[in-house]
Protein: HTH cro/C1-type domain-containing protein
Organism: Brevibacillus formosus
Amino acid sequence: MQNELGKTLEALRKAKKLSLRAVADITELNFSYIRDLELNVNRSSKKTVKPTTDTLQKLATAYDYPLENLLKLAGQVEVANAFEKILNDPDVSEKKKEAVRILMEMDDSDESLDRVIGILNALK
């Protein structure tokens, strides 16, 4: 049985009239992996697929759909709520909101995160 994330991803792709290969080209994800996400199962290992924030960001961009919604559907509620709280808080400066948006868009690789952490530590 498909989960809500998978159903949503498939519906978004079909609404945009995109093939799996077209989405793969846009997102630089493997088309087979995208289909596994839609089915909520790795068809080779039969295990549940758990997408990263980076993967969800790429799909959100491709489908012009809010990342926060995909994060919630993927069970990453805490991350989604933290992003929403910051981005919707009128007391948070636009510069800080821009920084959060950049963090949301960056990949989840340890190398990228280490660079950001290094820069932030240097600014303390």
